[in-house]
Amino acid sequence: xxxxxxxxxGNVATKxxxxxxxxxxxxxFRIAATPRRWxxxxxxxxxxxxxxxxVWAWRALGVNVTSSVVVGEQLLVHGxxxxxxxxxxxxxxxSVDIEAxxxxxxxxxxxxxxxxxxxxxxxxxxxxxxxxxxxxxxGEAASGGLGSPWEGGGGGAREEVGEDAxxxxxxxxxxxxxxxx
Length: 181
What we know:
The protein is mainly β and 181 residues long. It has one domain (5-154): CATH 2.40.50.140. It has one helix spanning 59-68, and strands at 5-12, 17-19, 26-33, 36-39, 44-47, 51-58, 74-88, 91-105. A five-stranded mixed beta barrel has the order 1-3-6-8-7. Strands 4-5 form a two-stranded antiparallel sheet. Strand 4 and strand 5 form a beta hairpin.
């Protein structure tokens, strides 16, 4: 297959949303990547223009992303790049999506504790239900939201899912990770 694979390093810009679909659960969120360059004239670092990507994580990856990621965290996302153009309200819009193959915390910027999931049923932690850790509302990125309606595609394995198909999974209590000293 001639897919374009990319790796993006950036900050989570929106709350992770998880929904069930006929072909399995899917999570989506926006990631903001801002390049930094050394500016010789100023003698310091300068930020470039921020790019926003919508990240789609399917099935087990989506469940794990939902249980592990909150707004503001630095992530690495590796996956297939998809550029879509569509016409809305008489204007053409371009959306850049990444269908994630792997998602992880950027350990150059912090620490993380890995826990292998052994359950066969999806779960969400209290961390993402009702803003238990100060994430209530999550917020949208300045770019104007999560993008367009869900799309199918990708070899026929995925079916089109409309906005009304979002379902909430039943939360299961998961103990918080213990601190490593």
